Amino acid sequence: MKKLLVANRGEIACRIIRAAKELGIPTVAIYNEIESLSRHVKMADEAYMIGTDPLDTYLNKQRIIDLALEVGADAIHPGYGFLAENAEFAKMCEEAGINFVGPSWKVIDLMGDKARAKEVMKKAGVPTVPGSDGVLKDVEEAKKIAKEIGYPVLLKATAGGGGRGIRICYNEEELVKNYEQASTEAQKAFGNGDLLLEKFIENPKHIEFQVLGDKHGNVIHLGERDCSIQRRNQKLVEIAPSLILDEEKRKYYGDIVVKAAKEIGYYNAGTMEFIADQEGNLYFIEMNTRIQVEHPVSEMITGIDIVKWQLKIADGEKLPYKQEDIKFNGFAIEGRINAEDPKHDFLPAIGTVERYYVPGGFGIRVEHAASKGFEVTPYYDSMIAKLITWAPSWEEAVDRMKAALETYEITGVKTTIPVLKKIMEEEDFRAGKFDTNYIKTHPQIFDYQEHKAKEDFVAFLSAVIAAHHGL
Known about the structure:
Blueprint: E1 4-6, H1 10-22, E2 27-32, H2 39-43, E3 46-51, H3 61-71, E4 75-77, H4 87-95, E5 99-100, H5 105-112, H6 114-123, H7 139-149, E6 153-157, E7 166-169, H8 172-190, E8 195-199, E9 205-213, E10 219-231, E11 234-240, H9 247-263, E12 268-276, E13 282-288, H10 295-302, H11 306-314, E14 331-338, E15 340-341, E16 347-348, E17 351-352, E18 355-357, E19 364-368, E20 375-376, E21 383-391, H12 394-406, E22 409-411, H13 417-425, H14 427-430, H15 438-441, H16 452-468
Parallel strand pairs: 1-2, 1-4, 2-3, 4-5
Antiparallel strand pairs: 6-7, 6-8, 9-10, 9-12, 10-11, 11-14, 12-13, 14-21, 15-16, 17-20, 18-22, 19-21
Helix pairs in contact: 4-5, 7-8, 12-13
């Protein structure tokens, strides 16, 4: 790899650039008018403004490829979001002679269709949720399948993501009412209104396995993560390893995941996502063919730099590990620091960061692109940073996260820091008693004093001034 173009922004662009620097690979950043002073722009060896429209910059396939060819970048890393799981873009890179840092476009295309992905995984021996074998023909077919597997059921867009095109139905009346709504929402969001139907697992946990494969047929997994703490079907807290899989179950499901990845010819980093019932049984829901936001927790418990290996694998390097070489050490927790107002249904908050202070110390890691003066705009995802802590035990990891959050200061915009602190203190969370409904069932986590860090700082300054003047 001679030069890497990073087709992304924010913390993931900074993360990729850092990994490339460690490998001695020159980097190219892209940006638009409103991000000319962004951290990823400053970190890269070269940076180019490729547009004025913030909504188009990181989605402009042809312009990104043209720029890579112009500046001599022979590889493109898409990060997550934007074009990361766009099979057409990956194919365009291949046709232009550019190394796409990810799996083949054919696998992206296959796994991007939930109906086909479920069918393939089922054939590969991966447990799947009972439901339709493929896309539903109409609401009558949905009614028939629902009657066979029993309510409640879940209507789900085949091309969905981010919680859109999903409806829970507890009876036939709700199924009929929600069918058209889910299809219309999916059509508007993804240009595809096709739906699947699955048995709805009540109060599930969200468990995912991190996969890493090379271009020589070698595949390993780096254990599982529990991403059950979510708001609006989007993750807020991620944990590795989960608290529900023992060593035997981890090996059982891990072996299944590796076998399935090999059968579809998977290489680079990927994640197989599952829901778990109350007995700890896992059911496949989808595969993400990219780096995940929460990859740091897997890195912290295995010591393997996933992003560096993405670049090495793209360059044709063989994995030096066998599955038995992967050892899991301690517990890691990631909290997403989002510019949102938790007290008002996590509505996005825009504005300028006035004060910005990140925690540090043993077992603490921060992935971010923010600083004082950072502009939070309405154009992109609300995540400002990711705070990750590691410790030998679950209890220590939680305590370390709580302590780190108490010293993480962001003013000027509302953030998820206060609610993350309350989660770390909450009894059920600490006991591992949580599922995907945790936020809804624990309203007490929203009972906190806002801007306490700023108030304490002002009080401190007032005390100093008073002492100075002998007051």
